[in-house]
Specification:
The complex is a heterodimer of chains A (about 270) and B (about 300).
Chain A: H1 2-10, E1 25-33, E2 38-47, E3 52-56, H2 63-71, E4 78-83, E5 86-87, E6 95-98, H3 112-117, H4 121-124, H5 132-144, H6 160-173, E7 178-182, H7 190-205, E8 209-213, H8 220-223, E9 226-231, E10 233-239, H9 240-243, H10 246-253, H11 263-268
Helix pairs in contact in A: 5-6
Chain B: H1 3-33, H2 39-58, H3 63-87, H4 92-113, H5 123-128, H6 148-151, H7 156-174, H8 176-184, H9 186-191, H10 196-218, H11 220-237, H12 241-269, H13 278-296, H14 301-304
Helix pairs in contact in B: 1-7, 1-10, 1-11, 1-12, 2-3, 2-4, 2-10, 3-4, 3-10, 7-10, 8-10, 10-11, 11-12, 11-13, 12-13
The complex binds adenosine-5'-triphosphate and magnesium ion.
Magnesium ion binds near residues 63, 64, 100 and 182 of chain A.
Chain lengths: ~270, ~300
């Protein structure tokens, strides 16, 4: 089943809606509000196993909020989220979350290796040893994002791109099956972006599922095979070829989008 | 001063001072990193009304009811602060301001409305405590430390603060990992399935316990100073969390010992005749240490870097 869905995703075919049972990640009727107006309204989304999905929308569209509510970090007014057919809270071992980099204080007194080791908490527990096997896993995760020489650096001394890699390494250390990333490319240079996308594509090649909030419309087609367009409500969802069009983008971004950003223009370049 | 005098007059207050300083500094590290360091201040504001309520309910000027009243008030205050912060989604400082001014005002009203003239609720005592009075009359010299009969005469504050210190240190050691993860990145911690609300509540409740135990022994000035100064100083000396906590313990102990000695002898050295308040001097020393670290500490940058 998983392989079939992966194939479908890779070919850009539509996967039948309503298959939360088999989807790697599914959200149903998610509505979240911080005040009188909802930040996310009645959003459904279905992510087939082995796919790479971009969540796109303007600032304040509720992308971060949607991920947070799905993970139970924010209490929704309504809605639920499942991963691999089970409530997200029951399968946390299989889910790795990469929060927005700006959401933490990088002056925190800790080193790269310590942050990555946080990804192993569920295995270590309160007092379990951070033994050789787990240390090797943390070191491997750090190496995969090209940060091996920085393992003992204090995190405040890293560049923004390096900090982003550390967050990714922490998720990799979890060895999860579903990766939910909030703007993994925010504020990183071209080299780091290449390094990160290579890691994500490698995850996909190993059958893992990747969902990333993404801002750069010009790279959506190149990096992802599915998109969800969001602006409080879900505007469109599906294979990039079908759902990522000038019309859906206009619907999601309104007048704020320059013509040059639209997919047609991108392809012309 | 001979050995016997030292053991009976200076050793107990020094040990109590060190335990108080360490008990407050330990949770202070995490409060500081969570930008909740002022919670020590908030707690000390509600301790007094808590004591009044403890007295009103029991009608007795006894230690335990008053301590219980203080603890309940402190815990109620920190729980309220957390609840307002999370439900109202407002900044921690504002939540603290709302809660401790309200509770403090409530305490003052209660005090006015009821007949507490018989209680000795001395503001100076509440602020500075009386560390110097916590002496050990049964001691006859160093050998008394091995004499159970003499040990039983140690000030009871010593045992209470030692118990609190042990409890705080144990809880911190056991919950070190989740506390660290949730302090650094609460979203990620929650995604791992850690009970972040309970962790944050647990921290402030432990802080409340530390503050009340410390208040019992030495008054609130030292409590406020010790929650903030040693951790903030330690933060400037290292950028590893474990090392920071270790440094904060060492600095707290140094401030307690140096403050006590300076309070007793400093004025004499300067030609004065009276000793000054030990608690006040301990707080001052911890502030001076922070100032020194701010001037010459190797890791001055991160504290200034706000997200
Ligand atoms: N903690 C919060 N309290 C109150 N309002 C919030 C909070 N977090 C987000 N919001 C509001 O909810 C809406 C959605 O925010 P969210 O962060 O989910 O958007 P986003 O799509 O991730 O935006 P960005 O692209 O800027 O990251 C915004 O209007 C924002 O102001
Ligand atoms: Mg966001």
């Amino acid at each position: 089943m998983a392989a079939e869905l992966q194939l479908a995703a890779a070919e850009g075919r539509r996967v039948a809606p309503g298959d939360a049972e088999t989807a790697a990640f599914a959200v149903r009727g998610m509505t979240v509000s911080y005040g009188p107006k909802p930040a996310v309204f009645s959003v459904d989304m279905t992510v087939p196993e082995g796919s790479m999905t971009a969540v796109i929308g303007p600032n304040g569209a509720g992308k971060s909020t949607l991920l947070k509510a799905a993970l139970g970090l924010q209490t929704p007014l309504a809605g639920r989220a499942t991963a691999f057919g089970q409530p997200v809270t029951d399968v946390r071992d299989r889910i790795a979350y990469v929060p927005q980099r700006a959401s933490v204080d990088w002056g925190f007194p800790t080193r790269v290796i310590d942050v990555v080791a946080m990804g192993l908490y569920r295995e270590m527990g309160l007092l379990g040893r951070f033994g050789a096997r787990l240390k090797a896993r943390a070191a491997d995760a750090i190496a995969r994002v090209g940060m091996a020489e920085f393992a003992d650096r204090q995190i405040g001394q890293l560049s923004g791109g390096q900090q982003q890699r550390v967050f990714l390494a922490r998720a990799l250390a979890q060895d999860a099956d579903l990766y939910l990333l909030d703007e993994p490319f925010a504020g990183v240079d071209a080299a780091t972006e290449k390094a990160i996308i290579a890691v994500l594509k490698e995850l996909k090649a190993r059958g893992k599922t990747v969902v990333a909030v993404h801002h750069d419309l010009s790279t959506v087609t190149e990096y992802f095979d599915r998109v969800v367009l969001l602006n409080v409500r879900k505007i469109a969802e599906g294979a990039v070829g079908e759902a990522f069009t000038a019309d859906t983008l206009r619907a999601a971004y309104g007048g704020r989008l320059a013509a040059a950003d639209l997919p047609g223009a991108v392809h012309a370049i | 001063m001979n050995g016997a005098e030292f053991v009976s007059l200076s050793l107990p207050p020094i040990v109590i001072g060190v335990l108080v300083a360490v008990t407050c500094a330990l949770p202070g590290n995490f409060l500081l990193l969570r930008r909740q360091a002022l919670i020590g201040d908030a707690i000390s504001h509600v301790v007094l009304p808590g004591i009044v309520v403890g007295f009103l309910l029991t009608g007795a000027v006894a230690t335990w009811p008053m301590l219980l009243g203080a603890s309940v008030a402190a815990i109620a205050a920190v729980v309220l602060i957390e609840a307002i912060r999370r439900l109202g989604q407002i900044e921690a400082g504002a939540a603290m301001g709302v809660v401790f001014t309200t509770l403090f005002a409530g305490g003052v009203l209660l005090l006015e409305q009821s007949d507490t003239s018989s209680v000795h609720l001395d503001v100076e005592h509440a602020l500075y405590g009386n560390l110097e009075s916590l002496i050990w009359l049964e001691a006859t010299g160093w050998s008394s430390l091995a004499d159970p009969a003499a040990l039983a005469g140690l000030p009871p504050e010593l045992f209470r603060i030692a118990g609190a210190a042990g409890l705080v240190a144990l809880l911190l050691a056991v919950f070190w990992r989740p506390l660290k993860i949730a302090t650094f990145d609460e979203n990620y911690a929650a995604a791992l399935g850690l009970p972040v609300t309970a962790i944050s509540l647990g921290l402030v409740i432990v802080s409340a316990i530390a503050a009340v135990a410390a208040f019992d022994a030495v008054g609130s000035i030292i409590v406020i100073a010790m929650f903030i100064c040693p951790p903030a100083t330690a933060r400037l000396l290292t950028d590893r969390l474990g090392a920071q906590v270790a440094w904060s313990v060492a600095l707290a102990a140094i401030a307690a010992v140096a403050g006590f000695v300076l309070a007793g002898y400093g004025p004499l050295w300067l030609g004065g005749s009276d000793a000054v308040s030990a608690a006040g001097m301990i707080a001052t020393v911890s502030g001076v240490l922070l100032g020194l670290a701010a001037l010459v500490g190797p890791h001055r940058r991160p504290l200034a870097a706000q997200p």
